[in-house]
Design goal:
This protein is mostly helical. The chain has one domain. Helix content is 64%, strand content 0%. The chain is built from seven helices and no strands. Helix 2 runs antiparallel to helix 4, helix 4 (47-60) crosses helix 5 and helix 4 crosses helix 7 (100-107). It starts with a helix and ends in an 8-residue tail after the last helix. 24% of the residues are buried.
């Protein structure tokens, strides 16, 4: 079991990395764009799309109700978002808007065009 300090750090990192609200992420996950990106196993749901659903569940929970599994998943999300951001996407914001790079990040709850 992780200690409270670890949970607090993960919580802060997650809140920083996931800049979309639960409702915005839910709405995005329903789009064709969301479902068009990411790695798919045997033609099924893309990994990032599935992750988005799990992120929505976490966002709907109260902080006090988060489990160790939730915190472990939040840490995974933070790692993915940070790695993906380091890869970089299109420099031109118009090209970035519909890029697979941005859409993939959005499946994980991060919109790089959001301030």
């Amino acid at each position: 079991m992780a200690d409270k300090d670890d949970h607090e750090t993960i919580w802060k990192d997650f809140k920083s990395a996931v800049n979309m609200t639960a409702s915005a992420l839910e709405k995005f996950l329903e789009t064709d764009e969301s479902q068009s990106v990411g790695q798919k196993k045997d033609g099924g749901e893309a990994t990032g799309h599935k992750e988005g659903g799990r992120i929505v569940e976490i966002l709907h929970k109260k902080k006090a109700d988060l489990s160790d599994d939730d915190y472990a998943h939040m840490k995974k999300v933070v790692g993915y978002v940070h790695r993906h951001l380091k890869q970089g996407g299109p420099a031109d914001k118009d090209k970035m808007k519909d890029s697979p790079w941005r859409l993939s990040l959005m499946n994980w709850g991060h919109d790089p065009l959001k301030d």
